[in-house]
Design goal:
By secondary structure, the chain is mainly alpha-helical. The chain has one domain. 60% of the residues lie in helices and 6% in strands. The protein has a 3-stranded antiparallel beta sheet. α4 crosses α6. The protein starts with a helix and ends with a strand. The N terminus is likely disordered.
Length: 221
């Protein structure tokens, strides 16, 4: 293993101890996927997905699954989590013009955290999923920041989707099936707005990933 790669893996939380030192290595995490794309610098600048984080993201997908809410994650949840992870990483690396302020980024990170809580069925369920996979608060913040930057790119550079108007939401409420259709519009407006934004973002992420597949190199390790 080259010194550069060894240093990189240490930076990702992999404990590497040379056997010549007579010490025993301790695995604190492991890389399970390597991927690269032109937007990230090509094969010379790969990105790595760690087992703990991917397992946590798969748990969130399972909690959000309408067919199996709260069930242990399955292969399809892992696939969905990986696609979302890769798409968000790519989008987060792209230039946004104009560059969002730190205030805007922080606000979107907070919004991303709230959306993730609601996808998981509440804050308690999300924190339990994080506990089960050993995900720290700092890692959760990093995940929310990645999602925030990805969502800002989609909103500003693809199509507006983070701030739907009340009129747009009222039309949705009247004509579309939503989780809040049986409640008064005025009482569910904030929750309906978050649900709508989350739904649009998920569709945009899926479309972006499908369009990016031809230029992606993804290797399961």
């Amino acid at each position: 293993m080259s010194g550069r790669l060894g240093a990189l893996l240490v930076g990702f939380g992999i404990a590497l101890v040379s056997p010549r030192l007579g010490a025993q290595s301790v695995e604190v995490d492991r890389v399970v996927v390597r991927f690269s794309a032109p937007e990230l610098g090509g094969p010379r600048s790969p990105r790595f997905v760690l087992a703990r984080l991917l397992s946590f993201e798969a748990r969130v997908e399972a909690l959000a699954d309408p067919d199996r809410p709260g069930a242990a994650f399955r292969e399809r949840h892992i696939s969905a989590a990986l696609e979302r992870h890769v798409a968000e990483t790519l989008l987060a690396s792209l230039r946004i013009d104009p560059e969002p302020s730190s205030t805007a980024l922080r606000a979107q990170a907070e919004a991303a955290a709230r959306r993730m809580e609601e996808r998981a069925g509440g804050r308690a369920a999300l924190l339990e999923a994080a506990r089960l996979e050993g995900i720290s608060e700092r890692e959760l913040v990093g995940l929310c920041l990645r999602q925030a930057r990805a969502s800002l790119y989609l909103d500003r550079m693809v199509a507006p989707m983070l701030a739907p108007s009340d009129a747009e939401l009222r039309l949705l409420y009247r004509n579309e099936k939503t989780p809040y259709r049986d409640a008064p519009f005025e009482t569910i407006l904030p929750a309906l707005r978050r649900w709508y934004v989350a739904t649009r973002l998920q569709a945009a992420l899926a479309a972006f990933y499908q369009n990016a597949r031809a230029r992606l190199e993804v290797h399961v390790l």
